[in-house]
Design brief:
This protein has one domain. Helix content is about 10%, strand content about 20%. It has about 150 residues and is of the alpha+beta class. Strand 5 (about 120) and strand 6 (about 130) form a beta hairpin. The termini are far apart. The longest helix is centred in the N-terminal third of the chain and has 18 residues, at about 1-20. It has one helix spanning about 1-20; strands spanning about 65, 80-85, 90-100, 105, 120, 130, 140.
Amino acid sequence: MKIAGIISLMVTLFVILSGCKKEDSDNNASMTSVHNETESHNNGEACMSCHNSGGSGEGSFNVAGSVYTEDLSTANANGTVYLYSGQNGTGTLVATIEVDGKGNFFTTASVIPAAGVYAQVKGASGNVKNMSQLFTSGNCNSCHGVGTAKIWVN
């Protein structure tokens, strides 16, 4: 009876501990930023340095970055990033990504075609800024805020 009790206790502990096991980051998670959400972090850092296949961040982002106001230090929350096939919001609208409540935008969806896209950022105020350069990498903060000006709109 004593052995049966010990075995029962061991099985119970195993079930509890394996059920509470902290899972490794889920790089297959489907994630896209939404207005007013405030769970994102690390504004201005290259999101995809962690949020990549095998990385420490949850989800493998295909497009990610941060948006600021003109002062380049205040996060600009709840805007929208549009990806177009043509410059200045022309051509086909390829994707729409909402900027969250902390000024970050991200998606794990494969939204950038091999031919590339042009970005347009619309602030919550309705003001718009366009990126005049075609890009094929959605790792926005790897350039913006490093060798290129931060993404901003008022």
